[in-house]
Request: fold
Amino acid sequence: MYILAIETSCDETAAAIVDNNGKVLSNIVASQVEDHAAFGGVVPEIASRRHIELIQPVVNQAFREADVTLSDLGGIAVTQGPGLVGALLVGVSFAKALAYGLDIPIRGVNHLEGHLSAACIEHDVSYPHIGAVVSGGHTSIYKVNVPGGIIQIGQTKDDAAGEAFDKVAKLLGLGYPGGVLIDRIAQDVDYTGIDLPRPMISDNSYDFSFSGLKTAVLNLVIKLKIFPDLDLSFSGLPKKRRALPGKEVLIPKIAAAFQDAVIDVIIAKLVRAIKDYNMGLLVVTGGVASNNSLRDCLKETTDKLGIQLIIPDKKYCTDNAAMIGIASIRQFKDKDGKNAYLNMNAISRWRWL
Ligand code: KG4
Ligand code: ZN
Reply:
C-alpha cells in the first residue's frame, strides 16, 4: 500500500510517498528559510501563506519522484500537531480534502512521534529504547516502549536547544537559521578561557534549560565589548551586526563554547536516562541531531557505554514528511473505518506523550 505523507507544522512544506513496509519512495522538502531570514525567525502568518503556495507543487513532485499516481494511493498521513496552528491547518485541510475526494483513509500523526520514527527509515529499531527529539521546538527525552507507545521522561523548561542555537547565532551576527552556521564556524575551534554554564547538568531529572546559557552568552558578548552597539538582545529584527576590529576572532570561540555547553548537557541527560532505564539503544533525532559535533560526541559516548546508537541521516533529522509516513504505518493497521479521521483538526499543543 502506498501512503502520501504531508508535513507543514512549521516552516518546511514537505510531502513524501512511503509504502506500508517502511520504504521511502520520495521525500520532498521545500524550505521557507529565505522567506523568514529577514525576520530572524519563523513568522507564523508568512509560513501559512507559503504552505498554501507550495503544498500542491511539493505533493506533485513527491508523486513524480516516486513514480506513483493518485489512483495508487491507499492512504494519506498528515502532521496533526504540535506546531503552528495556521501552518498545520494547511496540511490537514489539504490532506482531508484529498482523502475525501479519493475516498481513502486518512490518519493524523504527532510530529514528535514522526521525529522518533525517522530512526526506522534506514535502521532496524529494537524496543524498548531511549529516544530524544532535539529540535527548534523541542528538547525532550522519551522512553519508547513500542511504536506509538511513547512516554516522555524529560523536556526543556524554557528554550529548546535549536531555539537557543538560533538566538545565539543571531546575537553573534551569524544570520539565520543559526544551528547550521554555528556548527560550521565552531568546528575544531579552541576556546580556552571562555567558560559558559551547563544548566541543570547535575540535577536528578531528565529536564533541560537553555535560557540561562543563552543569557550567559549575551553577558559575555557585552563584557568582551565585541560589537559597537550596546543594545544587544535576542528579540526584534536581526541587526547587521559586525564585530569591532580585532574582536572577530572571538566569535567562533564563543560559538564553539556555546555549542559544547549544549552538547555536554544533552549527553549528560541521555547517559542518565540510558543508565537509569538500563537501555541498550539510544535514538537521537530532530534538527539539532544533524549537528556534527553532537553526532561525534554521541557516537563516542555510546561506544564507551557499549550500547547501540541510531541517529537518522541528516535529511531525516530535520523536518520532513517521510518520517510522518513511517509513523503512520502502525495507525493504518488499526481497524478504524475509512472515514474515521475525516473530522480531525490541527492540534497546536498536543500533550499525549
Ligand atoms: O527538527 P527541525 O527541522 O524543526 C523543528 O521541529 O523545530 O529543527 C530545526 C532546528 C533549528 O533550530 C535549527 O537551527 C536546528 O534545528 N539545526 C541545527 C543544525 N541544523 C539544524 N542545530 C545545530 N546544528 C546543526 N547542524
Ligand atoms: Zn520538527
